[in-house]
Design a protein that fits this description.
Elements lengths: L5 H11 L6 H7 L2 H11 L3 H13 L5 E5 L5 H8 L4 E6 L2 H13 L6 E5 L2 H4 L6 E7 L8 H10 L1 E10 L3 H16 L11 H10 L2 E8 L3 E8 L1
Parallel strand pairs: 1-2, 1-4, 2-3, 4-5
Antiparallel strand pairs: 5-7, 6-7
Length: 227
Amino acid sequence: MGFLSPHHFFQRIMNCCNPIQYDTGRLFGWFAVPYRLRNRLFGFEKTQRQLIEGIKQAGIDAMELLEIGCGPGYLHQSLLRDGAATAVGIDLSTGMLDEARKSAKAAGLEGCTDYRQGDFVRLAEDIPDADITIMDKVVCCYPDWESLLGLSLQKTRRIYALTYPRDRLTTRVGGRLLHWGMQLIHCCYQPYIHDPEKIRQHILEHGFQMKYHTLTSSWHTQVFMRT
C-alpha cells in the first residue's frame, strides 16, 4: 500500500485524534447490510441472547429503553415487540442507523423508536433518562470507559445491561491482531480490553447490584439493577 499524500496524512492525523467519531463509525457502517443478512440467517449472537435473557428476567413491561451503540437496532426492537414501551438508539454509524430505521418501520415500531447519530458521551446532556440502558459490545470500542459508564449510569433509572470482553490472553492477542489489521488499512479504530473488576466496581458504586452474569470464552454478559 502506497504512502499517503501530505493532505491525506494531515487529515488522518486529525481523524485519529478522535477515532470514535470518525473511523469507528465508518468501519461499522460497512457491516450494516452483512449484519442484516447474518441476523436473518442465524438470529442473535450467543451473547445477545444472554443479554436479552438477563434483561427479561429483570422485567421489561412498559419500560423505556436506551441502547448505546445500537447498530441496526435488532436488540432493542426485539424487546419492544416483547413489551417494552419506547427506545432511543444511539450509534456512530449513519449506515447502521439507516438500517435501524428501515427495520423499525418494517416492524411497525417507527412511532416508538428515536435514533440519534454520534458519540453518546458528547450527546449525553440531550439524551432522556431511561428505565433500561443497554450496551452490547460498546465498552470495548471506547478508550475512556469511565466517562462512558458514568454518564450512562446517570441516565439509568432501573436496569443496566452490557457485554464486554474478558481480560484473557486470547482476547488480548485477538485485539492486538485486529488493531494491527486496522493500521494496515489506515483505520484508527482499535478495540480496548478494560479491567472487568474495575468495570463491575464502578457500576456498583453508582448504586446498582448485579442480578445476572454469564460468560462465553471471550465475553462477560452482565445485568445490574439499581438498589
